[in-house]
Amino acid sequence: MICTVTENILSTTRHAQALLADLGRSERVRAADEHPALGWRRSGLMRVTGKPDGPALVCPAALATAADGALAALATIAPGADFPANGAMLLGERARLMGLGRRGRVSPNGSCRLIEAADGWIALSLAREDDWSLMPAWLEADISGWEAVEAAIASRPARELVERGIELGLPIAIDLPPRPARPWFEASEPVATRHHGRPFVVDLAPLWAGPLAASLLGMAGGRVVKVESVRRPDGARQGHAGFFDLLNGGKESVAVDFATSEGRDALRRLIDRADIVIEGSRPRALAQLGLDAEASVANGTLWISITGHGRTGAAADRVGFGDDAAVAAGLSSAMATGWGEPLFAGDAIADPLTGLHAALAAWAMWRSGEARLVSLSLSGTVAHSISAGLAQDAVLRAWQRMADADGAPLYPPRPVIARARPLGADTASVLGEC
Predict the structure, then answer these.
(1) Phi-psi region at 411: left, alpha or beta (left = phi > 0; alpha = psi -120 to 50)
(2) How far does the chain reach from its first CA to its final CA, in angstroms?
(3) 353, 27 contact by CB (below 8 A)
């Protein structure tokens, strides 16, 4: 069921305790309990939530509390780690660095749009050139530009559009209502880890969620190596340099050619040595690299898989990014219920939420000596976070008034402690150890 908020305050501490219980842990959490509306405002997320010509809005879902709870739980089982002050700050970090603003039915970074079809709304992300090249095949017309895409979608059934888009590999989702709470991760049966003292973490994930999780593991004490393809490095390297540094500073950098047998052999050697692997690829893509997550787990590696919508069944081949995955989880529908129309809430918010939860799951299982294949999805993490608390009607209006009246400064931004290493700067030294 979805927890409808009837009180003014949701507890970060209780949420953190519940997350730890899901992981089989019983440590007692002591955390500051920030109100979800104040956490949303002070993280800068009101600036990117609402229509461009309308007021800055509070999100009806207590996502700030969910983020605070995940980080508080992680801090509880990683005492002494120098983590950020709270999780909510991480949700708004990129938007503040990039100076993004609210754009209503357009995501703050402009890559995703909520579009009305004949019988409902869909979210479509077109962040990659390859996605635009699929428009003629998807809409069966010579289409270019957002206006033409929206016009072509307007007369067609939403589900048919989304099903066809998924088949073609588009990041697309139907705007659905929030669904009942489900487990926020799935895990295989445990085997014993190969404890090496300080865990050796191989970060294969691009963009935001996986790199954030790996960065947090580095703060907890892990040695983190970021591994990229020399032909197709992490696309975030071409984005905001300061944000890339925040996610990847302090990691060693290895770059190999995944298209060659030598490069794939080097990658497998790294995986064989890893205590924890974090990746954000569909299972089919891993298989093409000759990587077998289940076999690695059987050898004692803790494997954290982050996908858009899941790694089994029909979801395994589905593409998802932070904005469209949040829509699939019910976030824009929650905005429509609360504020009268579907809107984006936050900036690609599924990414930082999932990164926080992935780091928590990884460190908890590492501390327990468990090697497992642990699967988290962007949409599933947001759905679980929405179920933590959803304000409606008078309660939501009270949250909005509280946020509007709040005069506290925004949370201090994180300083860049270390610059990200140049691509492949540590390849020779790291591979020399394998």
Answers:
(1) beta
(2) 48
(3) no
